[in-house]
Specification:
This protein has 88 residues and is mainly α. Helix content is 73%, strand content 0%. The longest helix has 21 residues.
Length: 88
């Protein structure tokens, strides 16, 4: 997972009030203590995330194009060349 600035994420995704309040509470708890383990994901947050993924899948089914194996291979080769160049 990439690090993200949660206040920015919350401002840009416009969650329901209940989700925003739950996330704000979790962020406040995290600011006060170390991360010591895991806890169950609150149901409203899980539902919000699941809905976002479902909308993304629906949008992709309509607007995304399949990529050929040749295009994937060329993209992979390009990526590897850039990584090698930058690592040198």
């Amino acid at each position: 997972m990439a690090p993200m600035h949660f206040p920015t994420l919350m401002a840009e995704c416009d969650p329901p009030e209940e989700v925003a309040a739950l996330v704000a509470g979790l962020l406040a708890r995290k600011a006060r203590m170390r991360e010591l383990g895991t806890a169950p994901l609150p149901v409203p947050i899980a539902a919000f995330v699941a809905d976002a993924f479902e909308r993304a899948r629906a949008a992709c089914d309509v607007g995304c194009h399949r990529v050929s194996g040749v295009a994937k291979a060329e993209t992979d080769a390009f990526f590897r060349a850039v990584v090698r160049r930058e690592a040198a």
